[in-house]
Every structure is written in C-alpha cells, then in structure tokens.
Amino acid sequence: MLRSTPHLFDQPRHGRSVLGGFLGVSALLALALVVASQLVFGQALVPFAAFAIAMTLAVFGLAQGYPHRVLGACNVVTLVRLAMVAFLSGALVAPDASEWVFFGVASLAFALDGLDGWLARRSGLVSDFGARLDMETDAALGAVIATWVLVSGTAGAEVLVLGFMRYAFLAAAFFVPALRAPLPQAFRRKAICVVQIAALLILVFPLTPGTLVVPVSVAAALLLTWSFLIDTVWLLRRAA
Question: Which InterPro entries does the protein's record reference (predicted)?
Fold first, then answer.
C-alpha cells in the first residue's frame, strides 16, 4: 500500500519547528526584500505583496505534507530565489529600473536553480513540497522575466508563451480533470525549462543584438509548446 506524505501537523513537535523555521526565514527575507526594493526602486509595495502571496501559498503547501524534521538549507535556497523573483516584480512598476540590475538578479536566481535540489539530495531532505516550491519558483521567474521583455518592447507577444505556458496549462487543468494527474519524471521537461529561462535571459541581456531576439524567442517558445503538448497528449491518452 502506498503511504501518503504525512501532514505537517500530524507530529506537533517537529511540525511547529519546521513551520517556525519557515516563517522565520520568510520574515528575514521579507525584511531584506523591502529594504532592497526601497533602495533600488523607490518603493517596496509590489515586491512585498508578491512575496507575501507566495509565502501564504507556500505555507499552505507545507502544511499539506512535509516528511522531515528540519526545513533544511535546500528549501532556504529556494526561498531566497523566490525573494529574488519578488524583487524583480518591483522592476515592472519602476519607471527607471536598471536593465543591468534586472539581468543580474534574474541571472543569479537562475544560477541558484539546481543548488536547492543538490542540497536536498545531499542532506536527505528531498520532499514533494521542496520540488513543488522549486518548480513554482521557476515558473514565477519565467513569468516575471517574460513580462519585463514584453513591457520593454524587446520582443512581441510570443514571449508570453515562455512566461505563462505553465499557468495556461493549470487553467486548462481546471476544466479538464485528466490534466491534473501527476506526470512521470522526465529529463526532457527539466532540460527545456533550463532552455526556457536561458532564452529569456538572452532577451533581457542589455547587449543582445536585435537580430537575435525573434529567432531566440520563437525557437524557445516552439520548444516549450512541443514539450507541453507531449505531456498533454500523454495525460489525455492515459485517462482515455
């Protein structure tokens, strides 16, 4: 019989410890986020609101099931990445946001991807919660970068595919129950996620030649669409 992941509060002692650690790290990151956003963008409302919403959803996910007694450095790294994404959201409403600052922070958030997974495996703290938090952080990073690219006029609407394909899939799953089933692990999916974010970073790099914008954005969008189509067809056939 398959065992479900234990509810965080099924064991009150370590449940409170993990939740306390999560909230403590989140509070410190929120403080750093507010200070950095105020200094760089002159306002911190949007980044703080974005981070607060993300943390609320993350706490809900954490409470649904976390099998370990400690939060671990792996999840702290992911939370740091999520705070970086929230910081980048502030650039979307800052009229004089620096392209280099945006590119630098986005690149660092991307570079840290993979470190959390490595730390989780090394410390024996692999969990569905950590994997989901990492995946949603990647999706949010892509959405924020794509929005920046579109608003700045660097690329056309095709860039929205790179930023919002996952959210379109989730919206479709709301109406098509078959799409809610879990997918098997696939290297193809992880590799294309890397290509997706890398392509977006090329588009936001201030020195990228204009002649590369359309080929990079269209090629990456087609590749991502192909990957989602594979998963969609697999799920629909499995449910048939």
Answer: CDP-OH_P_trans, CDP-OH_PTrfase_TM_dom, CDP_ALCOHOL_P_TRANSF_CS
pLDDT digit of tens for each residue in the chain (240 aa)?
334 455 555 555 556 788 889 999 999 999 999 999 999 999 999 999 999 999 999 999 888 888 888 899 999 999 999 999 999 999 999 988 999 999 999 999 999 998 998 999 999 999 999 999 999 999 999 999 999 999 998 888 889 999 999 999 999 999 999 999 999 888 999 899 999 999 999 999 999 999 999 999 999 999 999 999 999 999 999 987
Considering the domain architecture, whether residues 132 and 14 belong to the same structural domain is answered as yes
Do 98 and 133 meet the contact criterion of CB atoms below 8 Å apart? Answer: no
Q: 211 in the Ramachandran plot: left (φ > 0), alpha (ψ -120 to 50) or beta? A: alpha
Residue range(s) defining the domain that contains residue 42:
1-152
Packing angle, helices 187-204 and 99-111, rounded to 10: 160
Is the domain of 3 the same as that of 116?
yes
- Extract the tokens encoding 114: 């993979």
236: its two tokens = 């629909």
